[in-house]
Amino acid sequence: METGKWTGLWLDHHRVYESGEAWKIETDGVDSASKVVDNALLEFKRGIAALTGAKVAGEAEDAVTQGLKTLKISLCPAISSEGYHIAGDADGITLEASDDRGILYGVFAILRQVSCGKRTAEVAEDSAPSNPLRMMDHWDNMDGSIERGYSGNSFFFENEQIVINDRTRDYARFMASIGINGVVINNVNVKGAASYLITDRYFDKVRELSEIFDGYGIRLYLSLNFASPIEIGDLKTCDPLDAQVISWWQDKIKEVYDNVPLLGGFLVKADSEGRPGPFTYGRTQADGANMLADVIKPYGGLIIWRCFVYNCTQDWRDTKTDRARAGYDYFKGFDGEYHDNVILQIKNGPMDFQIREPVSPLLGGLQHTNQMLEVQIAQEYTGHQIDLCYLIPLFKEVLDFHTHCGSDKDTVADVVSGRTMGNRNAGMAAVINTGNDANWTGNDLAAANLYGFGRLSFDTELTAEQIAKEWIAQTYNLPGKETEILCNMLLRSREIYEKYTSPLGIGWMVTPATHYGPSVDGYEYSRWGTYHRADHLGIGVDRTDKGTGYAQQYYEENAKMYNGPDTCPEELLLFFHHIPYTRMLKTGKTLIQHIYDSHFEGEEGARGLAADWDSLKSAVPSEVYDRVKERFDLQLDNAREWRDQVNSYFFRKSGIPDEKGRPIY
Amino acid sequence: METGKWTGLWLDHHRVYESGEAWKIETDGVDSASKVVDNALLEFKRGIAALTGAKVAGEAEDAVTQGLKTLKISLCPAISSEGYHIAGDADGITLEASDDRGILYGVFAILRQVSCGKRTAEVAEDSAPSNPLRMMDHWDNMDGSIERGYSGNSFFFENEQIVINDRTRDYARFMASIGINGVVINNVNVKGAASYLITDRYFDKVRELSEIFDGYGIRLYLSLNFASPIEIGDLKTCDPLDAQVISWWQDKIKEVYDNVPLLGGFLVKADSEGRPGPFTYGRTQADGANMLADVIKPYGGLIIWRCFVYNCTQDWRDTKTDRARAGYDYFKGFDGEYHDNVILQIKNGPMDFQIREPVSPLLGGLQHTNQMLEVQIAQEYTGHQIDLCYLIPLFKEVLDFHTHCGSDKDTVADVVSGRTMGNRNAGMAAVINTGNDANWTGNDLAAANLYGFGRLSFDTELTAEQIAKEWIAQTYNLPGKETEILCNMLLRSREIYEKYTSPLGIGWMVTPATHYGPSVDGYEYSRWGTYHRADHLGIGVDRTDKGTGYAQQYYEENAKMYNGPDTCPEELLLFFHHIPYTRMLKTGKTLIQHIYDSHFEGEEGARGLAADWDSLKSAVPSEVYDRVKERFDLQLDNAREWRDQVNSYFFRKSGIPDEKGRPIY
């Protein structure tokens, strides 16, 4: 890649066949002034030409060799919001959609199907998004750095300025192509210049960005500083019940919407990890969220309020306080009190994006509150986009989890889609893994998580394998055998990462602050509420009714399951129970032997991934091969360090040797 | 203190009595053009006036009430270099000195004695420095930061410029008053702008600084980048045996001395922690040092070559490689080959300034090589100038250590003073603890280490208690009881710090990178060669003849002593031996019980220090009380964390409970 260039990711449109066709487009009842439709048509023309060598209307007539085909686009009110129906035949393709976004998504669906091997005449799909909101959360700072970014710097911000260029538009295209309809551009930790995004210092650029996004069916959102009345206003308080504060926000939000009418709303991290919030004033999270929601309501805006609130100055000696409990403890009591344009954004697990956690009991635990699932594709704890870790299987597990919330639609997928409660302000959000690296995601293969999250949030019924294959076909257009190899690498990568890192759901055995590489005791004596409580006899946190009681935050069926060491899913055993090293697991191994075996297997698995990648050397572009190969070399070092440090730690602590006599230090 | 002001440290000159006297000064045979003598006279006038209310010549005659006294200064060739003889009587004081520096030191001795309670008529001392070189090494970077600095930023550098102002002169006065005669102004890790200190970018300011220092008997030295021929020249190599490299250095050093004739020479950290050096070219440390020494010899310059060379990318699994061995292994083989103007600068212990280490076997191990002792008063591993840790007792232990090198002058004090080998290029250096904080050392009480190092390097016979009392008298002029309290705090502080941190010489149980606060396994699985090898049965590194063989680097008497667990001094037991937790120590306690007890005692000791400080509240200036009190609050937190984390770590690992049933987690 040349400097200043960037890849087209899955929209690079490899030539899949030579159709010799020409296309024209007919629209019926479609808003001809719609920027979204314009962009959809552009994408079709560009895509079909690149994929099949076809000519498109305007330049088409003279070049017809196989006859002229027609893309017929019309609106159909019977189709669900943002949905589409596509059907190909000998004459072309019919695209019916509910609305402009449906047209755009329909076009991308056509191109995807062709990319994946269908002829245009074979294209067929009825689809509408599973989730009303499908969002990407950027943790980009205005100095250009990215919190937990592993792909270079921000492409939105540089030197406290907003950057808008061709890359911005490509980004919007990519997001639209996977069905994303909301983007938060700035870090949830809003500090310094970012506090001024809601002032005239930045209005022009924010508006310009919101308009570009709007052309791709995407609403722009901002992360908000709850202390704005103090930091950018001249008030001494940001108490959400203070009349002056409310009045300040009313003026401010009016000013914002006067200048940026397309703004979707705000994401707020309050009372969390040092951020200001309503607790400072003895108010509840509901007080804070509802105040802002009332102020923004006239403009149709949303307040997305994060539930990542916990005591981050815990004393490690304190075994009663349990960070895992915090979200439920703080938010459940106000279920039903959050206003209709508030959405609580809940991380998939109760801790923080570990490779294995139980599903947060808040999801479905809240029965009268808009809620949204937050996952992280930025690989903060899952390998920094050095280690291969395809996260879609993890997200699938979360979505498929039965909350037992009393509805027959009781999975997390049901809850966050709004199906359970019949609400519209719901959906899924991901902390995104992009940066200004030429390949967008640092590790080329990490783009599978970017692609995968979008697709999954659009259609939660898709399998991790389907998504992987779609991504591979569109990105690399590999032959069948190579597709199988790469798909299989992706599908087993998460289990491999889990095996060589922390065992059985305990998490956190990671280098503090950076969150890459092992440090078994790194968080054991810290203030972060993240402990494994290992001693010479056993390990794990007792979160049962005899321990912290966290398991009792679930509905009865799940609470019972987690509460018993025999019924608790083994992959979460140490999350819920303190277990002796000598306890026999269901596999017929002792806990300590399981730790040893899984760490040896995990490292071996990483070597298998690297070997598989080597076998693809001639199938993928050489620069892609080289970049990913470099990362596999680092992953092998990482896997070896994890294996040996974790095994040595537990061998030294327990004194129990490995049955197989392998090297432990 | 006002902004931009700074304290006068021990030269604040409290009024100790009202003499009603007046003084005149007579000199005999003294160089009237000497800046050093000028400064000495100024110090006398200023000091005697402030201490006793005396008038001094010029303004004196009219104000005499008790008669006119005379300070008679003359040179006396019989006195050793830089030495002085002072004697007071009814007529005044006689000061005889070997040279200008002797005069300066003699004046400061007079002021010190008066500060400490003597009348001028009682002043009496014969003294000459124990060590030819008495140096302070600053680790100041040219951006103004200080590596391992805990007292603000640099007062030498700011924004890549050299800063010279009134503070510079005060600094020189303080150093002269404690006998320092050499100062390295820049960090041994020479990077970026600092590589250009030997170019015309900085010559003017370096010369100006060297001249100010010279007025106080101080030679300015620079840390040197061994890769200068590459980094600031246009060569492709810095191979010390390459003719072009040698020629480059000849030109460069000539240019430097043409511009900065007063330069003392260079300090070099080569082949260490990522710094370039002769090893890159298959050359020895002697090759590197001798080349530079030959080049600088015509100008009378010294090359001070650090012996801090070790493998900092060790595999923790490797139990054969021992960082402690590295200095001896790399340098001993070339004993006798280092040229006469090379001095090897050797850290007091073989590791890196831990609170307890054995003395480096290189000290005295080298029998035909100039050597210099390096200690650290910057409290990198000893509490960051938050925790009180008076280091003079530690330095005394090092100086008093018998190397058994075969001479009847075989202590470290003998070796580094040059007494053992009869050499002049020898002495002591300290990594300094100053910064641009108004009180110079962050913690006001850390100035005792600054003062103490200078005094001890000048007179290694002084006791830690004498030095502490001198410092207290000059700084705070406290009544007897309060002096005793503060002196006692200082004297017991090192043992207290040792007790609540890592046990029995093992070291390194510290937070990686920052080096403050506990992290028992923080360096256990790292690349730094710093391991404790604790398992469920015991702890310690076997450095005996059955282990890494480090103990055999000492002369036989010491080697035997360290090699046996019964003869090894107990405070170093875990440095030399891997010991079961159940082993009985000489105190009649098991090792594990010793760990528990010492950690409880250490934390209690810290509380005792804080309580003692509270008792001094009305005796010391309130701003001093407040600043130090703030630090004691932090020290108590730190001591508690150390106590609980270390005890919990070993309880969890060994499973052996505390006999006294105290809380362990």
In short:
The structure is a homodimer. With about 675 residues, chain A is of the alpha/beta class. Chain A has helices at about 35-50, 100-115, 165-175, 205-215, 230, 245-260, 285-295, 325-330, 390-400, 410-415, 445-460, 465-475, 480-500, 555-565, 575, 590-615, 620-655, and strands at about 20-30, 55, 70-75, 85-90, 90-95, 125, 135, 155-160, 160, 180-185, 220-225, 265-270, 300-305, 340-345, 370-375, 425-430, 540, 580.
Distance between the amino and carboxyl termini of chain A: 44 Å
Number of H/I helices of chain A: 17
Number of β-strand runs of chain A: 18
Please, what is the oligomeric state? Answer: homodimer
The computed structural class of chain A is alpha/beta
Largest sheet of chain A: 8 strands, parallel, barrel
Question: Radius of gyration of chain A, rounded?
Answer: 25 Å
Give the overall shape of chain A, derived from the CA principal axes.
globular
* Overall pLDDT of chain A: 96
Estimated helix fraction of chain A: 25-40%
Query: Looking across the biggest beta sheet of chain A, what order are the strands in?
Result: 7-10-11-12-13-14-15-16
